Design the sequence.
């Protein structure tokens, strides 16, 4: 099949060790012409994805997908994890203001980019189930709207003043802790969870899972009409993943392909999302996919 017959896919995909070979053209297919969106940070494209259906193929944060599915957005999940990672190291406090531990969070103000952010959902679930900290006892401060327009934050969520950022507010003493993701360069910022990397390893062994962050989604009409594209996309991502460098200290695959390696992680994030009122529908893991994507990567 010649290049002239390739299907162009408007694609949102950031640069990761498992995607670079696709983005650089080292892995390709005569069936697909990827037209990559200009966003360097994938979450900048999530709002136009779920509000305007702007892309054909995209990575998407799993909580955003759960909300998109609840509100009938025209995308279906593919069993391809694009980003999976430990979460324990992503919440920080300002050590200049004295020590702080998870047990101290009751009544404290904690910043998070958006209440529906997937990393925030994972952290709240971990804090509640592993450290006994009820998310409802924390005053949450947010900075952005949810990606899915129909979702409304639970009552009591505070919006920071325009122009503020969680890290700046944390350093200024305006909040007590913040979920910041990856942070480097400021010695005042310390991880709230002691020995966070070991805590994450212990969590992974306990749950037999790595927290899922971003997975692939595809436009529903394409999933139903072009099974050949689905198979080819999975092949390309598997090959690109194989060519990427895997960190030497990774105990297990954090970016698996296929439903079963991610089933326990998906079950947990569904439970956490229900508990935190991020969704109101209890999906089963298999319901997140459809007949066109459920068996991919098996």
Sequence:
């Amino acid at each position: 099949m010649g290049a002239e017959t390739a299907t162009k896919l408007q694609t949102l995909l950031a640069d990761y060790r498992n995607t670079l070979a696709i983005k650089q053209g080292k892995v390709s297919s005569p069936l697909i012409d990827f037209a990559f969106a200009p966003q360097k940070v994938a979450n900048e494209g999530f709002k136009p994805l779920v509000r305007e259906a702007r892309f054909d193929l995209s990575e998407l944060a799993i909580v955003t997908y759960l909300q998109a599915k609840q509100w009938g957005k025209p995308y279906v999940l593919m069993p391809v994890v694009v980003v999976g990672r430990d979460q324990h190291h992503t919440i920080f406090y300002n050590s200049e203001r004295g020590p702080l531990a998870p047990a101290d969070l009751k009544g404290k103000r904690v910043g998070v980019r958006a209440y529906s952010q997937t990393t925030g959902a994972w952290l709240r679930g971990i804090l509640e189930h592993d450290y006994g900290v009820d998310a409802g006892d924390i005053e949450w401060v947010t900075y952005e709207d949810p990606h899915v327009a129909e979702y409304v934050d639970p009552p009591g969520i505070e919006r920071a003043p325009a122009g503020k950022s969680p890290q700046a507010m944390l350093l200024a003493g305006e909040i007590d802790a913040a979920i910041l993701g990856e942070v480097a360069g400021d010695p005042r910022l310390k991880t709230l969870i002691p020995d966070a990397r070991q805590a994450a390893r212990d969590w992974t062994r306990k749950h037999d899972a790595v927290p899922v962050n971003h997975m692939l989604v595809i436009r529903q009409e394409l999933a139903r009409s072009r099974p050949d594209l689905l198979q080819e996309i999975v092949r390309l991502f598997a090959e690109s993943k194989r060519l990427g460098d895997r960190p030497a200290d990774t105990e297990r695959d954090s970016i698996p392909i296929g439903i079963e390696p991610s089933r326990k992680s998906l079950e947990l994030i569904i439970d956490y999302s229900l508990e935190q009122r991020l969704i109101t529908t209890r999906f089963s893991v298999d319901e997140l996919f459809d007949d066109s994507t459920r068996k991919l990567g098996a």
